[in-house]
């Protein structure tokens, strides 16, 4: 792939920090311009690529994060998975290799220096094909499953194709031909990184990572129903003990805790978007006890369902009024 760094920078290893700083500054400027200086998530003409800008502090967001590669050009972010906290900034990247219920919050931003980042969603079939081509479908990719979320150093070898991908937004005629090539290069760099096998494991046939991915999909489709762990283990061809061990290794949660997060996050979405009462929202996500729903919702989101939904709507109206 074309290398955008000047020959002088490439020739001097001591210039590596300068290379990264130059690339990062250009990426930040591009995201700021392409976002039009407007806060929010911005869909782009490149499939699966989104840009993000934020200049005002916000409450933590709670979502099921799909497999993706995330880069910050400016600012920093805190991501919570289960009881674990991951911090990353413009010197690191974040990879989410499974569908995981996470909480996140931008921790370093201001109107003068807004948070600027991007997210490139993964295609599991592309990961599997490239992992097979690179020989990662055997050996390291078959290690015991690890966390489905990890961070790594964002050096020039990875930052350079990221920048070239974003530059393509200024050349729309080139996107259909070049964007898939640059995206593939980014995926290649990630798979070749020290923790790249953790990304490959989710797409490796019959590996623990893929079976946990199947368990996550099973739970996601049936989160409203009572959880029978034996049925889940049978569905993904694992013993109950093996399922518990590997599921918690990947997600930092037990299957029951995972299901609870899915239920609470969906209940919050229903309350906010459909304007139903708390009893209806709780029932629709599978809670039979209203008091249990209120108690678990308050513990997770910090306030009772109705009050939390009212606060979120007021925040939305405030942002729309700015």
UniProtKB/TrEMBL annotation:
Lineage top rank: taxon: Bacteria
GO molecular function, one term: sequence-specific DNA binding
Transmembrane segments: none
Claim: Transport is one of the keywords in the record: no
Keyword Magnesium set for record: no
UniProt-annotated stretches for the region Disordered: 298-322
Keywords: Transcription, Transcription regulation
Pfam family, one: AraC_N
PROSITE patterns in UniProt: HTH_ARAC_FAMILY_2
Signal peptide (residue range): none
Biased composition (Basic and acidic residues): 307-316
Name the UniProt record assigns to this protein: AraC family transcriptional regulator
The organism of origin for this protein: Piscinibacter gummiphilus
């Amino acid at each position: 792939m074309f290398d955008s760094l000047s020959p002088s920078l490439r020739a001097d290893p001591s210039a590596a920090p300068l290379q990264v700083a130059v690339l990062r500054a250009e990426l930040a400027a591009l995201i700021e311009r392409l976002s039009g200086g407007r806060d929010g998530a911005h869909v782009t003409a490149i499939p699966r690529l989104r840009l993000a800008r934020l200049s005002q502090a916000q409450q933590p967001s709670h979502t099921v994060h799909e497999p993706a590669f995330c880069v910050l050009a400016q600012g920093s972010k805190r991501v919570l998975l289960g009881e674990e906290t991951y911090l990353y900034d413009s010197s690191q990247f974040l990879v989410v290799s499974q569908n995981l219920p996470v909480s996140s919050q931008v921790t370093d931003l201001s109107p003068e220096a807004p948070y600027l980042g991007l997210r490139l969603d993964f295609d599991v079939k592309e990961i599997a094909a490239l992992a097979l081509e690179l020989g990662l479908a055997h050996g390291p990719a078959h290690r015991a499953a690890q966390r489905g979320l990890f961070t790594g150093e964002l050096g020039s070898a990875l930052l350079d194709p990221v920048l070239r991908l974003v530059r393509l937004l200024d050349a729309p005629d080139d996107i259909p031909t070049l964007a898939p090539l640059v995206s593939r290069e980014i995926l290649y760099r990630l798979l070749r990184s020290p923790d790249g096998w953790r990304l490959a494991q989710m797409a490796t046939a019959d590996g623990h990572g893929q079976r946990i991915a199947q368990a996550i999909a099973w739970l996601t489709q049936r989160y409203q129903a009572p959880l029978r762990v034996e049925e889940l283990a049978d569905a993904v061809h694992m013993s109950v003990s093996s399922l518990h061990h590997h599921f918690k290794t990947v997600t930092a949660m037990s299957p029951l805790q995972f299901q609870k997060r899915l239920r609470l996050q969906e209940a919050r979405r229903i309350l906010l978007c459909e304007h139903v009462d708390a009893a209806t929202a709780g029932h629709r996500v599978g809670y039979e006890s209203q008091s249990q729903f209120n108690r678990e919702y308050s513990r997770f989101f910090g306030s009772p369902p109705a009050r939390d939904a009212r606060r979120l709507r007021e925040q939305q109206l405030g942002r729309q009024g700015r």
